[in-house]
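We treat protein structure as text, and this decision shapes the records that our systems exchange. Such a record has a labelled line for the sequence and another for the backbone structure tokens. The record that follows is passed on verbatim for readers who wish to inspect the format:
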Amino acid sequence: MSSADASTRATVRLVDQPRGAHVPESGAVDSVQEAELFMPDATLARLWSGEYLERLARAYWHYLHRVSLGLVRVVYEPDARSVVLLVRPLVLLRFAAPAYRTGVSGGSVEWRIERGLLVAKAGRGNGYLRIAVERAGAPESSGRARLDIRVAVRNFYPWLRGGGRFARFGTWIYSVTQLRIHVFVTRGFLRSLARLDLPPSRVGARRGEISVDDG
């Protein structure tokens, strides 16, 4: 949808994460960022569809491109999404095509991590990025509804962390660079949802779907 006017904008409340989250020197790394969106119930009813779940996914990649000043972009392929730095040979992360799941109270879109410069060999095909949305019960007496949104990276093996004797230092480097940037960008994306500006999907696989409550 286009930028919303003041009456249909959402209020975003970020869910605080524990400070100094532990990053292991080996094994998988997880990162979860959450927010609560409050908006008029009528607005949520209008957006509550499979099409807008797909547009939410598109909004994430669009925000990444914008906040990186165009240095990072997403290349769309029939069976993959590649996050590249400037040009295709510099593939930071390559994901499988998105998998959508919907249910009675919400839905999610998930991209499985296949490979890329930022992921260690052990993590290829194991980790994933997921955006999940859930409608939180009945609207408030004020007529405003709450939507919980979670952006999670699970089972990720960072190349930057390295291994062996380097792992301790590599873990610190990863924590203060790649992980910190990811958290900053993700929380910025969640804040940006206050505008309810969800650009049309380039693929449009779920265009025209009326509701996410389709099982």
